[in-house]
Amino acid sequence: MNRKPNIIYIYADDLGRGMLSCYGQKHFKTPNIDRIAGEGMRFERAYGCAYCAPSRASLLTGAHDCHRGGWTMTQGGLYDQVTRGRMPMEELSELIHTVSLGASKGQHFLAEIPRESGYATAQIGKLEWGFATTDAELRRHGWDYHYGYYDHAQCHGFYPPYVFENGTRVDIPGNTREDFGKSARTESPENREERWNREGRAVYSQDLFDEKILEFLRGQSAKGEPFFLYHPSQLPHGPIIIPEIDPAVRDHPDLTEFEKEYASMVLRLDRTVGLILDELARLGIDDNTLVLFASDNGHEPYYVQEGRADPSKNVHTGETYDNVQTKFTSEASGDVFDGNDGMSGKKFSNWEGGVRLPFLVRWPGVIEAGRVSEHLYANYDLMATIAEITGARCPDTSDGISCLPELCGDVERQASHEAIIFASRQGPGLVTPDGWKLKQATLPGDNLYQLYHLPEDRKEENDLKFEERGVCERL
């Protein structure tokens, strides 16, 4: 670690860990993402938030999402006014800055940490804050260069008529749909026909991101300056749409076409990871680049169709989940992929399947290849970790703990959280290093607590709040 390492953080969207073959996916392989795990390390106990906006805010501020106040999330879809010519960009930016709670004077953001140590910073992909952002906000967050979407609602479409590059609108030839090429969320013959209609859908957004990522890597390599690249992808967030079905699943006998399309979105992200790793090697900077891969929250099955997966109910009994006594599992909901890796729950919930993430780290010469870590990691630990790696000071407002000792194999020096914490639609939850989990479970007119010991009950089936009253009261 004599030279400052380059850092790349790849952030998948709604990617359940069970969708990756390094975490057990059986229907297809994700060879490039697996390569990060095989040549680096895989975390078994990594946590994010229950859905996208708080996860991204937590990541960027180093703070967990159970603080009272502090963040406001602007409304998605505001940029439709720009798309339809009803409001100039300058007026919309002013509106966003008026209604959102801006950063306080002393507040620090993730990109500012490495930048203070001489790093060039870039954010390429989905917007990194709230549901609508601006050039001024991105610059305030510490990004020297940014390219991509500024509106979360537009991110549900993969054929943008325009994106933004350092605040300048860049029109994409051939992408003419004002809805950004969105598709229907459920499967039907009509929806399938519309989904594959390429009129106004010429350039897929991930192709745009790939091009800019490679440009940035080549430019920074030529300069010889350390960099921090953050790539929040849209993939594999739905609605499902992909330019082509990947050959790896095209003839799979156990998958429907809709499921093959979703799998192809995961594999499209895997291809981007391969492009990045190969380019690092080609540029000769692979041995001095730390690559991290994670998701914002747990699994969300977008491949809903009659007789197959249904995220809201038990497909065998027809019972609708209350997310307290009954909850999503792959078996009950008919999820052929087992995207939440055999756990209970999915996106928006405080069950393990909603908040427990894939987290992979590769750092040649520093991380021992093929390691599996049981260290309790939260996504708000990233700021503290990058601060220690780059030699910067971690802000006092951060709730994070650096996991650099764990990455280096110095487990004796690795500090631990007393507990990590996250919010959800059902209330908060916390997990301790020794595997106790307390979660709030809200039903109409009633607030409950549930207690699980995850090492023996990964699926959260045995509530121990009465048997372990002392543990429950302490937590």
Question: Helices, strands, pairings?
Answer:
Blueprint: E1 6-12, H1 31-39, E2 41-47, H2 52-61, H3 80-83, H4 89-99, H5 112-116, E3 120-125, H6 135-140, E4 145-148, E5 162-165, E6 168-171, H7 189-195, H8 205-223, E7 227-232, H9 257-283, E8 289-295, H10 330-333, H11 352-355, E9 356-362, E10 371-373, E11 377-378, H12 382-390, H13 404-408, E12 420-422, E13 429-431, E14 436-443, E15 446-453, H14 469-474
Parallel strand pairs: 1-7, 1-8, 2-10, 2-11, 3-4, 3-7
Antiparallel strand pairs: 2-9, 4-5, 5-6, 8-9, 12-13, 13-14, 14-15
Rg over alpha carbons: 22 Å
Helix/strand-derived category reads alpha/beta
Biggest sheet details: 11 strands, mixed
Helix content: 25-40%
Task: State the distance separating the first and last CA atoms.
Answer: 39 Å
Shape: globular
Q: Strand portion, in percent?
A: 15-25%
pLDDT averaged residue by residue:
95
Compressed to H and E, one letter per element, the order equals EHEHHHHEHEEEHHEHEHHEEEHHEEEEH
Number of continuous helical runs: 14
The number of distinct β-strands equals 15
Low-confidence stretches: none
